[in-house]
Amino acid sequence: MKTNLWFIFSVFILSSGVLFAQPDSVFFQKKKNKDVQLGWRTKKEIGLNLNQVSFTNWNSGGTNSISGIIIGKAEAKYKQEKWYWNSNFNIRYGLNKQDNQNLRKTEDVIEVISNVGLEKDPKSNWFYSAKFSFNTQLANGFNYPDRDEPISRFLAPGYMFLGLGMEYGRFIERLSFYASPFTLKTTFVLDEDLANKGSFGVDPAIYDLDGNLLREGKKVKQELGILLTNKYEQEVLENIKVTSLLRLYTDYINSFGNIDLEWELNMDMKVNKYVKATLGSHLRYDNDIKIEVETNEMTNEEIVVIGPKLQWKQILGVGVVVDLDNIIKPSTAP
Question: What is the pTM of this model?
Answer without folding.
Answer: 0.80
